[in-house]
Amino acid sequence: MTTPQDIIRSDILSMKGYPVADATGFVKLDAMENPFTLPEPLAAQLGERLAGVALNRYPAPRPAQLIERIKQVMGVPAGCDVLLGNGSDEIISMVAVACAKPGAKLLAPTPGFVMYQLSAKLAHLEFVGVPLRADMTLDTDAMLAAIAEHRPSIIYLAYPNNPTGTLYDDADMERIIHAARSSLVVIDEAYQPFAQKSWIARASEFDNVVVMRTVSKLGLAGIRLGYLVGAPAWLEEFDKVRPPYNVNVLTQAAAEFMLEHVDVLDAQAAQLREARAQLAQAVAALPGAWVFPSAGNFLLVRVPDADAAFETLLSARVLTKNVSKMHPLLANCLRLTVGAPDENAQMLAALKLALK
Ligand SMILES: *Cc1c(COP(=O)(O)O)cnc(C)c1O
Predict the structure, then answer these.
(1) Given CA atoms 217, 72, 201, 267 in this order, what sign does their dihedral have?
(2) Residue ranges per domain, the chain?
(3) Which of 70, 88, 162 has the most ligand 1 atoms within 8 A of CB, as the residue to mutate?
(4) Which CATH class is domain 54-261?
(5) What per-residue confidence (pLDDT) applies to 174?
């Protein structure tokens, strides 16, 4: 009798699946979702658009109209192409698989986005984590030393970083890009709507840089659409790893529709940036709380006892992310997503209780 234990890779057997908390009945401030829904007339129009989609047909593998719209709306420079993924998570995994030569390494600052490390593990790349400084800024000298020592195939720089919210210094980024002559540098701009800074216009300036974006944090996490911007020479290779019909017809149609109405999402992002500033100020005023500067739609907050604070928030039906065990630099840290005004108020009230 064959069992999974006989067949499945031992490193997979010893893994746990990606944890997603059940948020039923909670104010959901754990996953950087946009809290706002679409205005009713727009939702109805979207429904009509989706009703016209041919569900019996396979999706276009490279939907020209959607890609054109992305190029135009997101300011993709001439000479750069766009590769679509089923969320940027799929792109991260495609990049790892395509680069997984024997002995190849993937380097990223830590703490960082967990999918970089997971993609390396699944594709058998060695992961090299370079700790940030205690204030969560980039330790550029340590990065340069690690790049020289490990000569990684892939370097991820999240701009801004998750879970810290840090927007790395542009000059530091540039030093790393120049030093990483034998690496591909992937700049992950998942939080661009909240950072309002981007490397996309410079994507064609360096032959070792690609820029990754997603519509998830902009308010479309449910449709799963990420994209990679870069020189065709890179994207053509990653495209060979892409599952042929990875972006489904409903996602393609919904994305195209929403990009025609991107002003609605942009206005929601502006509202969240405003709320982020207010929330940061209010949380920072609580006794014992330290708020790290954030360019995302979330705040990293250090408190005296993160486990206790997290539990108090849960009792108040507010779900946040306790990141305190993820990395030593995150000791006693919670990550709070910026939500709608009433959600932020409920979280703040619970946090006040926790810290008094
Ligand atoms: C949320 C997030 C993503 C988005 O992944 P999707 O699969 O597109 O939802 C990518 N990078 C970072 C750093 C993130 O925090």
Answers:
(1) negative
(2) 4-40+263-354, 54-261
(3) 88
(4) alpha beta
(5) 97
Give the span between the Cα atoms of 249 and 340, in whole angstroms: 30
pLDDT tens per residue, range 72-122: 999 999 999 999 999 999 999 999 999 999 999 999 999 999 999 999 999
| Domain 4-40+263-354 is found in CATH 3.30.360.10 | no
- Strands 209-214 and 184-188: what pairing? parallel
- Tell me which residue has its CA closest to atom 14 in ligand 1: 190
Give ligand 1 pocket residues (Cβ under 6 A): 32, 87-89, 113, 158, 162, 188, 190, 214, 216-217, 221, 226
Per-residue confidence (pLDDT) for residue 20, from 0 to 100: 86
In 3-state terms, what secondary structure has residue 322?
A: strand
Burial class (CB in 10 A: 0-12, 13-18, 19+), 55: exposed
8 A C-beta contact, residue 113 and residue 158 = yes
**CA dihedral (26, 325, 218, 224) positive or negative:** negative
Beta strands, E only, 16-153: 27-28, 81-85, 105-110, 126-131
Dihedral sign (CA 32, 191, 107, 154): positive
Question: Ligand 1, atom 2: nearest CA belongs to which residue?
Answer: 190
Under-70 pLDDT residues of the chain: none
User: Could you tell me the distance, in angstroms and rounded to a whole number, from the CA of residue 265 to the centre of ligand 1?
Assistant: 17
Q: What CA–CA distance (Å, rounded) separates 83 from 237?
A: 11
343 in Cβ contact with 304 (< 8 Å): no
